[in-house]
Batch of 2 targets.
Target 1
Amino acid sequence: LENGQDDDFMTEFMTLHDFEKGQVYASFSKNIREVAWRVMDDETLATVFDNLEGDAEEVVDLLQEVPPQKGANILVEMFADNEADLFQAMPARLASTYLALMPDREAQEIRNLIKYEDQTAGALMATEYLAVAAGSVVKDVLAQVKKQAEEAESIIYVYVVDEKHRLVGIVSLRDLLTHPDEMTIESITNTRVISVKAGDDQKEVAQVVADYNFFAIPVTDDDQHLLGIITVDDIVDVIDEEAVEEYSGLAAVDVSDTDDSPWHSALKRMPWFLALLVLGLISVALVASFEHTIRQAPILAAFIMVIAGIAGNAGTQSLALAVRHFGSSTDKSFWKNLISELLSSFVLAILAGVVLFGFVFLWQDNEGLALAVALSATVAILLSALLAYLVPAALRKVNLDPALVNGPLVQTVVDWAAILVYFGIATSMLNEFIGK
Amino acid sequence: LENGQDDDFMTEFMTLHDFEKGQVYASFSKNIREVAWRVMDDETLATVFDNLEGDAEEVVDLLQEVPPQKGANILVEMFADNEADLFQAMPARLASTYLALMPDREAQEIRNLIKYEDQTAGALMATEYLAVAAGSVVKDVLAQVKKQAEEAESIIYVYVVDEKHRLVGIVSLRDLLTHPDEMTIESITNTRVISVKAGDDQKEVAQVVADYNFFAIPVTDDDQHLLGIITVDDIVDVIDEEAVEEYSGLAAVDVSDTDDSPWHSALKRMPWFLALLVLGLISVALVASFEHTIRQAPILAAFIMVIAGIAGNAGTQSLALAVRHFGSSTDKSFWKNLISELLSSFVLAILAGVVLFGFVFLWQDNEGLALAVALSATVAILLSALLAYLVPAALRKVNLDPALVNGPLVQTVVDWAAILVYFGIATSMLNEFIGK
């Protein structure tokens, strides 16, 4: 396809969807890519680079296959949010090279964008939006929409700003089209603007956009100056990313790429696997320290697993609920929720105690043993719920994402607690049930 | 606010965002709602009902507070996808009442919509889209856009259909605005349409929309007849819903509502908690059946937890990867992936074996015991990986969602396997390490 017939290829290529352009380009071998970027103009290449999947680092590698000046041109033509992502992934020296090769205004804009922290609204926003001055009439705004339609990332909303570029309202394209040409923009402007601040966490932004069913949301600084917009397609990515993070945490493995080779997959799983193994050895030592008790009542060994298991299950449930809770709500009373969580776990703990007492009593006809097992399970479940609540709460307290919590790690600590509680209680009650 | 000053209230209410209208209405007491729906016209109430959060059942309850004819009018004015959701949540008798009170054409449309299975593209789609005949010119299409803008759920794309209403192409509003009035629509139509079939799973639809960054995607039947469109705001909800499902499965608790009362939360967690407790009792019986072995070597008890724990962790990792894998990809070779997964787990299993052998040997100076523990861990991890792969694979085989998998349930079965393997090996090797 490639060699010689450039025109045919380009005609064919231009009929592809933007997403496919990125996919096709990435699938070329390096040699073919070199032919490809030579025949494409900067704008087409910008579309390709806007739509490349994978890490920003990999995209930067592809960008470096192109001469620096052309690379800088491509960056200028890209959407500002994607461009900023690439700049953030580059070594500092490469970034200054590209910035030097750009028009001053573009370079300044990028410098402003890359100062925003990852996972904030500022890092997500694009600067290609449509702003018009308050006081314009419908006809003129429509003319501007037509002129800027090519460049803007979204033309669903037009943003109305005052002389200081502060956001005062939003007009939907729908309203522009359905109102008379000479009407002033004010009369169709919605001034109850929902906007986010550049420093807001991307999770909160996603929640707002999802609740309101917006196609785009404006981003401002603390003084309401319009800085950019975030479109719903970026929100889709955020929701996916956050969900993968929570899920990965609960399983202690990064599930973001499921098509790894076996060796790569093993390497990815290894760090936590090994850490949990070593921490598991502490359980061994703990149980072994009660060897004397076990020697006197070997039946005790049979119940360790069910006590640790049921405490672990209760802990996993509490943990999952707490992570979602802390992740989705912005301000909640810490103590009120802790008590609510403990009350709920208390119901389950009592239930488990009753079931275990009944089972052990009927099976072994030994109420001392039954009491020790039931009591241990109840205490272990409550401890486990407390732990599962405090860990994500603590992460949030120090401004970390509660989704960073590691399910199996919490479970391992629950195991230790269960062992100590169980054998502690069993040892102290040994005389109650031994020899019966 | 309510009593008397209806006009003030309505003026205030109409400035709210659609989402807020739903929130405010739901927050009223029943008496106030009665005043509210009396002063609102059908269209405003339709917006309210389109934006009510919560189960469809709860929304149906609110709808029944309104007289049947007004209820039917509200349903007619709602977006078809939301309307269909409500019909699906109603008792059959109530549904026929509303259908009888609707214009025939509307009633027929709803009958067509509610036949689609839940979680398919058909169940998600809205029928408020803009279709124009091939052969129109830009000016006429724009006039149509303006006319229908009020009603359509999205006016970002216009769909071009042939005389049999088969989808032949898509025109973006952006292209309509930037091309001359007299141009035929064909010359700016994109005929490489990406569409989905009404029976497609919502997860696959979400993937396509997320990949292509579409604002809306058309839904067709098997003969390419245009049936409706799915907008990105519905996709946002799908992605969230699917993520919650996977996460809930891994934790064995429904995390979709995190603001329950303690008692309600306990009730929600109880079914799986109790089931897992009862299944955990099987572990007790299994360990107890090896009481003779434990009596001879109480130190064995110390290693059950680390072996079951590490096998459980490996299993949880495998399970999380498998669920994501089966959930996100459509056709994959079963055997190739099973082997790849087992190879990856084999690396981890060997590693765990080596670490455990080293630890037990150094600690107890007993290579027989070290070998028994290491061998058990290796076998248990491999069994656990196999199980964690086969469960979601089997769910998919019978056309169930792999996300239905229950993490702690798999872990409980892993526990049984670990106990049998460990005590089986230990019992048969008892002479090798006892008394040393």
Target 2
Amino acid sequence: MSGMPGQALTDWSAAQLARTEAALSDWVGVGAPSDLGQAMRYAVQGGGKRLRPLLVLAAREAVAGEGHSGVDAARDEAALRAALDEAALRAACAVELIHAYSLVHDDMPCMDNDVLRRGKPTVHVQFGEAGALLAGDALQALAFELLTPERSDIPVAVQAQLCRLLARAAGAAGMAGGQAIDLASVGEQLDEAQLRHMHQLKTGVLLRASVMMGAACGTPGAAALAGLACYGNALGLAFQVVDDILDVTQDSATLGKTAGKDAFHSKPTYVSLLGIEAARQCAQNLHGEALAGLAASGLRNTERLAALADMVLLRSN
Amino acid sequence: MSGMPGQALTDWSAAQLARTEAALSDWVGVGAPSDLGQAMRYAVQGGGKRLRPLLVLAAREAVAGEGHSGVDAARDEAALRAALDEAALRAACAVELIHAYSLVHDDMPCMDNDVLRRGKPTVHVQFGEAGALLAGDALQALAFELLTPERSDIPVAVQAQLCRLLARAAGAAGMAGGQAIDLASVGEQLDEAQLRHMHQLKTGVLLRASVMMGAACGTPGAAALAGLACYGNALGLAFQVVDDILDVTQDSATLGKTAGKDAFHSKPTYVSLLGIEAARQCAQNLHGEALAGLAASGLRNTERLAALADMVLLRSN
């Protein structure tokens, strides 16, 4: 565990979550035809841990202390700081939209055919399959809209870098690729390396991208970037290991989604592969790797990131 | 009709299409798990008119003659020209990927449930529904990957502007929004203004974006931009009017897709609303508006754009 008091994270998280929810509420479904806008808001509202936005904002905080002259030496430091804070908030929302769209599509009958998500009917149950398909598609596009506002002081280099990081994390070499491997491996016998690769793509890459997008709203040096990447990698994998553990140890009410479905679908998991105790040890080791990455980064303000690593390890849903 | 000889367009188009096909072949499905990569390539290959890429490249040609010092005065003109030519090729492919993904999702059973596209089985018939869903999702992400290459001389302002234009054209206030209106209006009585609004979003906005993305690979003045926007608007709408005419006048073999399906699904069309003759006149008027936009732009090299407007009006599929 990191040394940070739990209450400080709670206060910080509450403030950041309030900003994120307000921004999502301002930005999602606006200008959309009514049914589509409703489905998009439904998909994004009411939920989840918002881990990805918190990672973006915590990483932004970690790099903000380093100053911003590397972004644009000609600009006033205070104005640049405000623009980069806005960029981080937009990035936080954008990565959450990618996550939200992936859940909408993943729940559809042709994929996991799930009817319950965070205790609510899934989007296709509520808005029909075609409505869910389009809402997911529009949420993905909206993520890139948020990163490239029409009139903004956000440096164009930061806008382009955020799009670059998010597109790669969402695409065929990232989340969508992981989903495809998952689809192809139902009922297959995977070894640990294959399982790790699948999860790295399916969930790990987007979690790491959250960290790197926060870092892109500043000018960390090479060592800081490498340390943050190490943190993001380890945290991304730890998240999935813990997810697999929770799937067998928690009931549906606590999870807010159908428990035990991995076993039901004969999906390979860390628990089915390693057993529950070794899976717990694996998560613990990854938590240590994440903290080691923070230490190696040389950045000073990494308390929030450390506390988020704790949260990932200790979460119950 | 514009005064440009047909053969000159044919030669230019053939050269641009060869570049586009080669680029798509280099960039689509690379780094994807094998099933996903195959489905992505299948969705993009073998077809279509590639109207959107041609619009991007023709618009780039129209603005290229104006010089590039407005993009970056500090850079060598020849190097900048090469970088902007590359940006236009990437934009041409990116907009085609958005178009391709929309067809993949639109053909799915929960949408139009179409089994034939360009004379081939649709993606979900070939790769399953889940495969088609993921291929579409990954194609959308890839579009933004192409616009933000890892190492590139393309000015970051151009990269950000291309993402900005494409994301808005693809999203809830553009193509996805138009699909949602289309979905909600099956069997409904729309008037001409409502029909125009639906088509403007569903197909018009992406066609206009193609023109504006080509223009963004240069530094046209305000009058030139306004003229190109006028051209793009009119062309986008003309395309759909002609599509509706073809749906009732051509057979499936010529179209390469199921003919008469609008009437079968009781979808409102320009032909059902205006009658065939008035629809033809409407397309002719829009063609005139498109050419008027080019004239108003004050740009010199607009012959390709004019010829593409002719092609849209005169096409048989």
